[in-house]
Amino acid sequence: MENLKEIVKLLPGYNCKACGFKRCDLFAEKILEGENPENCPLLFKEEFKGNIEKIKEIASTLKPLEIKKTCASKTGLVGLLDGYEADFLLDPLPEEHSCRETLIILSKNPIKKGDHIKYRPLGCPIPHFAEIIDDAHGMYVVHLEGPCNRFNSEKIDYIEVGIALIAAFEGVYNGKTPEVGKTVKFIPTHCMMQKVHSGVVVEVEGNRVLIEGIDLKVW
C-alpha cells in the first residue's frame, strides 16, 4: 500500500486518461502489476523529470501482484482529495470525452455555443477550461477540456468568465444504481482532483443520469 501511495505521488495527478486509465491511482495499481510508467505522456514534461526512473525503481523492488481496492469501503470508490465514499463514478455519455456540466455564468463577457471558456466553479480551487456545446436562458452546457487537450499544438483562445455555478451534471453512472429524487455522492471521471460531488437525481434513463443541485460539500 505504501508503494502504491508513493507511485501516485510521482504521477502528474491530472487524471487525464492519456495512459488509458480513468484515474492516476488506477494507473499506479497497474504499474505495480507490470504496466510501463512511460505510457503516461505527461511524465516526459520537464516538471516531472526523473519521476519515471523513481517509479520504475519502486516497482522493480516488488513482484507483480494483484492490488486490492485502495479503500475498504462498500463501493470501493473514494475521493482522492477528501477521502469521502462515492456511490458511483460519472462517465461521459457515449462518443463524448467528458461528462456534461450545466453552468450558470454571471460574467458580462458575451459567450455563445461553440466558444471556449475559462472559469472556476464556486467552491473549487482549480480553473476549468471548456467548450460550450449548448446555451439557453442563461444556462450553458459544456464539455471539459483536460490537460491533454490544452497541451496539444492547436492554439485555442479561452474567454475568461470568472466564477461559475454548476447547476447540473449529466453522464453515465458506473456503480450503485441511482434513484430519482434521492441525493447521491459521485465522482466525475474528468475531475482532475477526483473530488466527491453531491446532488439530487432528477432523471434516470438506462444508465444515463441527470443530477442537479450540485454541491462540493458532502454531508
UniProtKB/TrEMBL annotation:
Q: Which domain of life is it from?
A: Archaea
Named from the GO MF annotations, one term is: metal ion binding
Keywords noted in UniProt: 4Fe-4S, Iron, Iron-sulfur, Metal-binding
Domain 4Fe-4S positions: 1-57
Q: Which Pfam families match?
A: FeS
Q: Which PROSITE patterns match?
A: 4FE4S
What Gene3D superfamilies does its record include? Electron transport complex subunit B, putative Fe-S cluster (1.10.15.40)
PANTHER family this protein is in? ACETYL-COA DECARBONYLASE_SYNTHASE COMPLEX SUBUNIT GAMMA, PTHR36214
- List the protein's name: Conserved archaeal protein
Q: Which organism is it from?
A: Methanococcus maripaludis (strain DSM 14266 / JCM 13030 / NBRC 101832 / S2 / LL)
